[in-house]
Amino acid sequence: MSTVLILGAGSDMAVAIAEKFASRGCDIQLAARKVERLTALQTDLAIRFSSRVGLVEFDALDFSSHSGFFASLNPLPDITICVFGYLGDTEKAATDWSESLRIINTNYTGAVSILNIVSAHYASVKKGAIVGISSVAGERGRQSNYLYGSAKAGFTAYLSGLRNRMFRYGVHVVTVQPGFVYTKMTEDLSLPALLTAKPKQVADAVYSAVKSKKNVIYVKWFWRWIMLIIKSIPEFIFKKLKL
Amino acid sequence: MKQNIANWGNYPRMKSEVKSFSMDEQLDELMGKTDHFIPRGNGRCYGDASLAVNTISTLNFNRILSFDSENGIFECQSGLTLDKILDVIVPKGWFLPVTPGTKFITVGGAVGSDVHGKNHHVDGSFSNHILSMEVMLANREVINCSPAEHPDLFEATCGGMGLTGMITKVKFRLKKIETSFIKQKQIKAANLDELIRLFEEYKEYTYSMAWIDCLSKGDSFGRGILIVGEHAKMSELSEKQKMRPLVPSPKAKLTFPFNFPSWILNTLTVKAFNFLYYGKNFRKVIENVVPYEPFFYPLDVILHWNRGYGKKGFVQYQFVLPLSAKDGLVAILKRISDEGLGSFLAVLKVFGHQKSLISFPEEGYTLALDFPVREGLFNFLDELDLIVLQYGGRLYMSKDARMKPEVLQRGYPRLDEFRSIVRKYNPSGKLSSVQSDRLLLTGN
């Protein structure tokens, strides 16, 4: 039976992923800030799926705590899923450095910090799987969310390189591009129903990607084509668009 | 985000700002900044009870908090739906103490409507089995209540349509079962008199209800099928059933993908349906052992069956009349039959005694009928209301989308007491729905 570590376990997407893996007989470690908020989820998963579910305090922005955090896990996880992210306020971030830094550090630096540690361990034991939830926003910078997008672009590139490096150790790395997802984070946006996934669909996609060792997945398949089109728009036109 | 929402009857439909939460602190924040909202679960009441300009959805607040499988005590957050509960408790030999005809309702909704099931005459309504619950009041104070603790809040929350506060956690007793099967018996009744006699004859059964053909006239006026059942014992199962005596139900696969054109349902098609339904029971009495799913939730196998009534939707009309008012039942069925407003589903059941503040059930006959929304329907239902009141009955708020406030007032003798408790805990009508405004339960 595998143990799955979920980093940033408080989000709707993370909860759905935890449920999915627990329903397939995995033990779960829920890692988040103020992790005691997740006590109800812990009890629920344990009752419904007879899984062992642990709660671990984790702060993506507290880089220096990351190695101690990982070493404290017992057992060390077989699968690590990095879900945390921060959309932030792009308008505010344009003039407020602390907001910019928070966006960058949550979506990129924090993820790199913890996954460096996780991947070093997996390389040493020559097994393991890492899943990174990135974003289609990272495929081309747009004025509405380019800070978030650029940090996710960095994260996507990181995951790609990590997959390449880890291959020879038999460690698999999955990049997930969810597209729009109905979550607390997007509750106030009006999203096109056809393009928007439910957290459960993301969870199903993540589970099957880990099982069948897929590399880069789009939760709704047409996002791959949408992004292909968006990426192929010439820059002299793109810069004039209101996206 | 503004969403276009409706409850199960698809009438009325409105735009609402829907917000959700999955943790206590998020609810606290949401309730702080939202005014004039109504808590909303899975939207399985029929009319406008969980509709408002602002709604706070409990669907993401759906965790099991404890399950004592030795003693059958279960505690969960209010957004958990009954189907998820069954998945967990049935394999351990427990069942819901009371369940309505669909398992797709939340526990919060079960409390807010104080739902009843086929076992009301034996086990009462859902609230009879609640040990305690937690409610977040309009001022965001969190109160634990039970029949002993804050009894006024407890009583007004059971069947109180979400007006006393946001139900957050509920702890209740389960029912022990030996198997997940039901030993059922179906008995055909040639007319209403026989049907009512059968109810009396079979009243020892834990579960009972009857389907009635509202369109039949003359000698077969009010013909129907009485369906009674008991949780089957191990010794009553077939060899095959014994191999897996405690199985939760399979997931539904059929669905109505779109709204049916409303002309499909007319007197002729309903007559044909009723003819077939009555005729399918070839013998007078059928007895067999079946899984709990088709017995309790025959319609859940078709997801979105409500779309069968077309885009304009339907209203479900459910009333209860005292046992002494059999004439009233006849009068109402006659009016429906004369009007030719047959309904697919007409369900008759006998309620047992219940003492409650605002819950719907009281001792007597309860009949539930579906009517597709069409011109003239509401005037007709206003007429039926008068007959119901005349015979000392009342209507079920969870099904209602149109009754007048005076109908509620006359049907519920303790309504003023309920109103004053609502005012105590929800003084400025922070929690209010389209229905509570219409029925003058929360208006300013």
User: In what range is the share of β-strand residues of chain B?
Assistant: 25-35%
- CATH architecture classification name of the largest domain in chain B: 3-Layer(aba) Sandwich
Per DSSP, the total helix count of chain B is 14
Estimate the mean pLDDT confidence of chain A. Answer: 95
**Contiguous helical run count of chain A:** 9
- Biggest sheet: strand arrangement of chain B: 16-12-14-13-19-20-18-21
What percent of residues of chain A adopt helix (DSSP H or I)? 40-55%
The largest interface is:
A-B, 16 and 18 residues
Report how far the terminal alpha carbons of chain B are from each other: 27 Å
Strand order across the biggest sheet of chain A?
3-2-1-4-5-6-9
Helix content of chain B: 25-40%
The fraction of residues in strands of chain A falls at 15-25%
Give the beta-strand count of chain B. Answer: 21
Dominant shape of chain A: globular
Domain count of chain B: the total is: 2
Q: In total, how many beta strands of chain A? A: 9
- Poorly predicted ranges of chain A (pLDDT <50, ≥5 residues)? none
**CATH fold call of chain A:** Rossmann fold
Would you write up a description of this structure?
The complex is a heterodimer of chains A (243) and B (444). Chain A is of the alpha/beta class. Chain A has one domain: 3-Layer(aba) Sandwich (Rossmann fold), CATH 3.40.50. Chain A is built from nine helices and nine strands. In chain A, helix 5 runs parallel beside helix 6 (146-166). Chain A is globular and about 55 Å long. Chain A starts with a strand and ends in a 5-residue tail after the last helix. Chain B is α+β, with helices and mostly antiparallel strands and 444 residues long. Chain B folds into two domains: 64-177, 2-Layer Sandwich (Uridine Diphospho-n-acetylenolpyruvylglucosamine Reductase, domain 3), CATH 3.30.465.10; 186-405, Vanillyl-alcohol Oxidase, Chain A, domain 3, CATH 3.40.462. Chain B is 27% helix and 25% strand. In chain B, strand 8 (130-136) and strand 9 form a beta hairpin. Chain B starts with a strand and ends in a 6-residue tail after the last helix. In chain B, 49% of the residues are buried.
